[in-house]
């Protein structure tokens, strides 16, 4: 629910940051001051072809959105949604987070309430250290890894870490382009498995490079044909 207060419906995007929606063409905006429940707000009314929005920025909470009211179109007199922050939590000195949001959905035709719900965020942490282990990617233990950039085959240890290059029946390191890759999940003897006959030894390049080469070749051919015709006409004259 807090996400609804961080992004708003746009004319070309379903949800986008307020600054992005504000830059979209074909809309009008106005600003007014308002006071509600003891808080002062700067209210921006934004209208575009798909919706009308009242965005209430709380002056007491670093101008975070404290309320968002949405109309589906300009023809309907009733809003279809109202998201209001009922509690801000100061997670650090001068830094606030919408810890509780009340949401109400209305019928756009007669304004009757369709649904109400309240969302509360209990665990809010700001700039907490994150251990490297939480973000680290690990392979399964005793796993064979194909490295098509370096043209090598690696073997992981019991901890899922790269333990060294995988070796074939002859005791030599395997490569993607030659040799036989053992299948660690089977009981086949060392050296049995899938044979690899191709390799990628560099990063994949963009196909745009071929467009440039072909275009250059076609231009050169065009110039050659033009020169040939000119020379032929000159000889005829």
List keywords for this structure.
alpha+beta, 14 strands, seven-stranded antiparallel sheet, 237 residues, transmembrane, 19% helix
Descriptive report:
There is one protein chain. The chain has 237 residues and is α+β, with helices and mostly antiparallel strands. It is 19% helix and 37% strand. The strands form four sheets. A seven-stranded antiparallel beta sheet has the order 3-4-5-6-7-8-9. A three-stranded antiparallel beta sheet has the order 10-11-12, with no helix packed on it. The longest helix is centred in the C-terminal third of the chain and has 29 residues, at 208-236.
* Distance separating the two termini: 83 Å
Overall number of structural domains: 2
What is the CA-based Rg, rounded?
32 Å
- What are the secondary-structure elements, in order, as H or E? HEEHEEEEEEEHEEEEEH
Main sheet summary = 7 strands, antiparallel
Low-pLDDT ranges: 178-211
Q: Decide which structural class fits the backbone.
A: alpha+beta
**Helix content, binned percent:** 10-25%
Report the principal-axis shape.
Answer: extended
For the secondary structure, the number of strands is: 14
Summarize the structure in short.
With 237 residues, this protein is of the alpha+beta class.
């Amino acid at each position: 629910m807090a996400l609804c207060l961080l992004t708003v419906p746009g004319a070309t995007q379903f949800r986008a940051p307020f600054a992005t929606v504000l830059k979209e063409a074909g809309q009008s905006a106005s600003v007014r001051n308002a006071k509600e429940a003891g808080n002062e707000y700067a209210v921006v009314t934004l209208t575009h072809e798909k919706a009308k929005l009242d965005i209430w920025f709380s002056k007491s909470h670093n101008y975070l959105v404290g309320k968002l009211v949405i109309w589906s179109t300009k023809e309907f007199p009733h809003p279809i949604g109202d998201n209001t922050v009922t509690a801000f939590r100061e997670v650090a000195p001068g830094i606030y987070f919408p810890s509780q949001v009340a949401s109400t959905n209305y019928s756009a035709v007669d304004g009757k309430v369709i649904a109400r719900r309240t969302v509360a965020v209990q665990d809010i942490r700001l700039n907490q250290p994150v251990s490297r282990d939480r973000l680290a990617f690990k392979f399964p233990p005793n796993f064979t890894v194909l490295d098509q950039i370096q043209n090598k085959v690696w073997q992981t240890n019991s901890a899922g870490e790269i333990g060294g290059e995988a070796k074939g029946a002859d005791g030599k390191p395997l490569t993607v382009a030659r040799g036989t890759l053992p299948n660690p999940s089977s009981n086949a003897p060392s050296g049995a498995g899938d044979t690899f006959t191709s390799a990628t030894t560099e990063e994949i390049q963009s196909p745009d490079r071929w467009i440039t080469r072909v275009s250059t070749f076609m231009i050169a051919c065009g110039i050659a044909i033009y020169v040939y015709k000119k020379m032929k006409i000159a000889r005829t004259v």
